[in-house]
Amino acid sequence: MLTSSSSISLINRYGYDETFRIFHDCGLDAMDYPVDGGTPTVEALQRANVYGLTEDEVVAKFSAIKESADRHGIIIGQTHAIFGQYEPAVTKEFFDITVKDILATHVLGACHTVVHPIKMPGRILNARKDENFELNLRFYRGLVPYLEKWNVKCAIENLFLEDGEGNLRASECADPQETLDYISELGSDLFCACADTGHFSLVEKDTGITVGDAIRRLGKAVEVVHMQETDRVRDLHVVPFTLRNTMDWDDIIAALREIGYKGNMNFEVMPFVKQFPDELKEAALAHVSKVARYFAEKVGN
After folding, report:
1. Using CB atoms within 10 A as the burial measure, which of 45, 112, 129, 210 is most buried?
2. 142-156 core/surface letters (b: 16 or more CB in 10 A; e: else)
3. Residue 209 belongs to a domain with what CATH number?
């Protein structure tokens, strides 16, 4: 099982080539490469990494990144596609960027890209659930020809929504059955689940489903993970065991072992690494690497 981490803050700080070097020196096997990130406004779409590029230009850009990763001995184990608020996410530009992110994933040699369901305003618990479900079915179905063309699987991530009063509530795919319903309705093995442990912890108060049991309910659909810890109030993205008694990591490890999880042991913890001064960033990532190796050995599939 490969150990892996997200990388966005290091890439933003040092560039991808130096970040690959740091990953290798810190003992990680693989990287969750951020092809694109969060997009809060329609105007921000123009800041996407693939915005305005032709397919040939996407291939050239990400071939150079793949060459750098290979040179440093780092595998691109998975990627993350663009995500954002409702207004930009329902535009043609957002869809076109997602398609190019899938192409970039193929060029980088990864089998999976994480594509968030579109977050609909007011989608808390079952409010607007059917409307939201149909919107996302159309979105994901539109990606099928490109997933097939470039042999990439789309991993659907479980989310939450801020309720206007600072509380993080259950929304898209917070209930594992919703992810399974997407996969069933799409009728394609091109879709799977990305289980974000921290996101599941944030919505347990709404769903009544523990993180471990959410993973068990998803079962074999889980092919990608975002391992991260929260205080069950804020989406902190810190390394497991950083906080005290907030998440049952023994049960989460047991759940991954029970479902036969064989994907990368990927940690989404850049906010944790980012808080350290430059002189300690490699030490912080080395800590991530050691904890990821511990999890990989405990899951052991």
Report:
1. 112
2. ebeebbeeeebbbbb
3. 3.20.20.150
